[in-house]
């Protein structure tokens, strides 16, 4: 036991040295962030990250250290680094913008964008639900108006803005559906218009590696500065037609949210205790439970609006119901071979993405298992 204690003391000493090294690395990251802020460089550069990870993996392998271990550690450190750089602020891409108004800026997502815009040197004002009696004062002399309200209120809110809009203003929205809001903005406003959809929730620590969808409206040269500003934050801009966007969101959002809701509803009606399921769960099942539970920690109204947005969503959900029934028949009839044949057909449809998803999910499972605590 004395020998074990001595070894553990040595490990503790090395851990302390690692903490010291992490502190030094984060101090250097702060300096990097200051340079990026000064020159308007994005906080996330994928080429730099890929090259650095490849080099460190090679060095680790030469020393007999698992390359995946080093990559896991570095990715976690880099994630913290991106968050640290974000706190330093960002260069102002367009200093001619004197005032930005976020309609719905008191909400979580609107508040997130307000913070990033303020960190970029812009003056941001907010028009909340209770502020419309002062809308003329709040919107006066604004250069940008961002609509960030619930989906069900978006079109009405855009219409309500019309009397206050001037031709020099940029009008945009952050709604998760795009065709109708973009069409409505073009209808009520003669100036620059662009539709944006952040593909993330308001709980992110950094914009690094996040995706923001861009649906062009009118006068893109007048809002290119905003896209450049978002890129500096570390996000990737993905351009897509509004109709195509909404079609994709049927599967990315509506179908997924419905399936998650249905799974949670089904579980809640079963004679099981959630604590027992967690205690006995494998990492993959725990992760699935976490994704279901995450949904129910948020706003039900938002998900209802997304699912009920258009008839296409319900048609695709109905096809999911049919797929469940078709799948169940394999087992009701004992058709094992039919199941295997269908399984292989779906596997072929996924193709090489299956291996990619296997790798990505393995990393997620490792993180989920690392966080697991036993009482």
Automatic annotation (TrEMBL):
Organism: Lonepinella koalarum
Name of the protein: T-protein
Pathway(s) where this gene product acts: Metabolic intermediate biosynthesis; prephenate biosynthesis; prephenate from chorismate: step 1/1; Amino-acid biosynthesis; L-tyrosine biosynthesis; (4-hydroxyphenyl)pyruvate from prephenate (NAD(+) route): step 1/1
Lineage: Bacteria, Pseudomonadati, Pseudomonadota, Gammaproteobacteria, Pasteurellales
Entry's Gene Ontology BP terms: chorismate metabolic process; tyrosine biosynthetic process
Cell location: Cytoplasm
Cellular component, GO annotation: cytoplasm
Domain Chorismate mutase: 1-89
Bilayer-spanning residue ranges: none
Residue ranges of domain Prephenate/arogenate dehydrogenase in the record: 98-361
Record GO terms (molecular function): chorismate mutase activity; NAD+ binding; prephenate dehydrogenase (NAD+) activity; prephenate dehydrogenase (NADP+) activity
Main localization (coarse): cytoplasm
Cited PANTHER family: PREPHENATE DEHYDROGENASE, PREPHENATE DEHYDROGENASE [NADP(+)]
Magnesium listed as a keyword: no
Keywords from the UniProt entry: Amino-acid biosynthesis, Aromatic amino acid biosynthesis, Cytoplasm, Isomerase, NAD, Oxidoreductase, Tyrosine biosynthesis
The keyword Chloroplast is assigned to this record: no
């Amino acid at each position: 036991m004395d020998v074990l204690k001595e070894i553990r003391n040595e490990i503790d000493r090395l851990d302390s040295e690692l903490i010291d090294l992490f502190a030094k690395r984060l101090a250097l990251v702060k300096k990097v962030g200051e340079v990026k802020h000064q020159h308007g460089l994005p906080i996330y550069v994928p080429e730099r990250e890929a090259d650095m990870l490849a080099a460190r993996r090679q060095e680790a392998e030469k020393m007999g250290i698992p390359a995946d271990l080093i990559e896991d550690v570095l990715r976690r450190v880099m994630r913290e680094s991106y968050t640290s750089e974000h706190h330093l602020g960002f260069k102002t891409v367009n200093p001619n913008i004197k005032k930005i108004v976020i309609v719905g800026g008191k909400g979580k997502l609107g508040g997130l964008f307000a913070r990033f815009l303020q960190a970029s040197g812009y003056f941001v004002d907010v028009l909340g639900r209770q502020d419309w009696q002062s809308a003329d004062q709040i919107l006066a002399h604004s250069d940008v108006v961002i609509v960030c309200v619930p989906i069900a209120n978006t079109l009405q809110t855009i219409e309500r803005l019309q009397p206050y809009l001037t031709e020099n203003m940029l009008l945009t929205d952050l709604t998760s559906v795009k065709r109708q809001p973009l069409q409505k903005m073009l209808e009520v406003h003669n100036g620059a218009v662009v539709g944006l959809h952040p593909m993330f929730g308001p709980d992110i620590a950094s914009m690094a590696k996040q995706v923001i969808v861009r649906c062009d409206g009118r006068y893109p040269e007048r809002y290119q500065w905003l896209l450049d500003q978002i890129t500096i934050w570390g996000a990737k801009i993905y351009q897509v037609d509004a109709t195509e966007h909404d079609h994709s969101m049927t599967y990315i959002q509506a179908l997924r949210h419905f399936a998650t809701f249905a799974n949670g509803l089904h579980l809640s009606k079963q004679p099981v205790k959630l604590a027992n399921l967690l205690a006995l769960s494998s990492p993959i099942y725990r992760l699935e439970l976490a994704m279901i539970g995450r949904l129910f920690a948020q706003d039900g109204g938002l998900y209802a609006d997304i699912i009920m947005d258009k008839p296409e969503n319900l048609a695709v959900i109905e096809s999911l119901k049919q797929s469940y029934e078709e799948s169940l028949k394999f087992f009701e009839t004992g058709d094992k071979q039919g199941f295997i044949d269908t399984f292989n057909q779906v596997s072929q449809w996924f193709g090489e993405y299956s291996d990619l998803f296997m790798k990505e999910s393995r990393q997620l499972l490792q993180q989920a298992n690392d966080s697991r605590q036993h009482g």
